[in-house]
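Quick one:
INPUT:
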């Protein structure tokens, strides 16, 4: 198991030495996709004006707003406006993220836990089960019905789920809502899973689960909504659709070494108690325990609350470092590598 923490919340930037009003720090915020967040929007638009960025392709979609933006900024009204949650510019933000990955010889399961749930996303990939380079499974909320520049049918999230992972089990909760962002053309009332049947050695649909086997790795997928396999058109054979604005998805991975045959794995999953509400799930997962997860509440395992936001910078079999550390010791068997970013030194131990 590996856990990692990347990035910081925009609001905490001053704690790390960055100033919301200093042009020299603007590169830091733009690098994390923070262009119109309330803390930085005034400086962003001032520098767009000063640096002549309005004519650049990146700003072409808002070029017509140049005059009103200039006026609002002059009177100090941009920051209050930017607090409106459905500003389309928020979708580019790459903020603080807590990641967890379980990697075995037969599968890998990885999740960005509780990452900005319910907010606008773009090219964010929240979770994935990987059994081979082609046999991968994930779920997303599309921003368009076509694969076009900027937003994609498969490549990202229009609305971000509340997601978590407990060992080989992933859970995602979607609450899409009805309010479109400013400038947003479509807000689709469905989520869909990528499940390429052609990439697996076996695919079996039983009860309300879809199972896949690739080699000795297994994956099981279910949803609180009825799952519809796409049988025709360009998405046939790899798309599973769940219609509705609220949906809870559950993915459970396994392998022959731990779970026996593919049939035994399916039987174990099918006989495990799972219950859904509109925005909650309780799953008594074999080998893991009883997991509860909801939109408003915490993640619990066997009645104990599990934190999703206390992740160290790195916590894996190869390296442990608290967040904020500038020294990393990486070890594999008897080999050691020391990276000291404070002293700018690299040494093999």
């Amino acid at each position: 198991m590996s856990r990692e923490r990347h990035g910081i919340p925009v609001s905490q930037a001053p704690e790390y030495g960055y100033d919301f009003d200093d042009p020299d720090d603007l590169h830091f915020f733009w690098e994390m996709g923070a262009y119109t967040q309330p803390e930085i929007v005034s400086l962003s638009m001032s520098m767009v004006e000063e640096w002549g960025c309005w004519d650049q392709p990146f700003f072409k979609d808002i070029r017509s707003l140049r005059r009103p933006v200039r006026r609002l900024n002059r009177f100090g009204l941009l920051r209050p406006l930017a607090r409106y949650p459905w500003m389309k510019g928020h979708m580019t933000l790459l903020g603080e993220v807590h990641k967890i990955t379980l990697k075995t010889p037969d599968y890998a399961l990885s999740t960005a836990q509780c990452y900005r749930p319910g907010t606008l996303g773009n090219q964010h990939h929240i979770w994935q089960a990987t059994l081979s380079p082609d046999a991968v499974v994930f779920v997303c909320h599309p921003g368009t019905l076509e694969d076009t520049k900027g937003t994609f049918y498969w490549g990202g999230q229009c609305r971000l789920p509340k997601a978590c992972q407990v060992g080989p089990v992933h859970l995602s909760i979607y609450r899409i809502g009805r309010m479109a962002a400013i400038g947003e053309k479509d807000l689709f009332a469905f989520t869909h899973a990528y499940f390429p049947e052609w990439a697996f050695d076996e695919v079996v649909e039983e009860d309300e689960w879809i199972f896949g086997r690739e080699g000795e790795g297994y994956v099981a997928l279910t949803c609180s909504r009825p799952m519809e396999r796409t049988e025709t058109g360009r998405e046939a054979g790899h798309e599973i659709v769940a219609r509705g604005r609220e949906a809870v998805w559950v993915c459970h991975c396994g392998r022959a070494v731990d779970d026996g045959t593919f049939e035994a794995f399916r039987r174990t999953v099918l006989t495990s108690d799972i219950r859904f509400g509109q925005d909650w799930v309780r799953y008594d997962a074999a080998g893991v325990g009883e997991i509860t997860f909801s939109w408003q509440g915490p993640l619990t395992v066997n009645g104990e609350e599990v934190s999703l936001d206390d992740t160290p910078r790195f916590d894996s079999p190869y390296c442990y470092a608290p967040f904020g550390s500038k020294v990393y010791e990486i070890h594999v068997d008897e080999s050691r590598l020391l990276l000291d970013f404070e002293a700018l030194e690299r040494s093999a131990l």
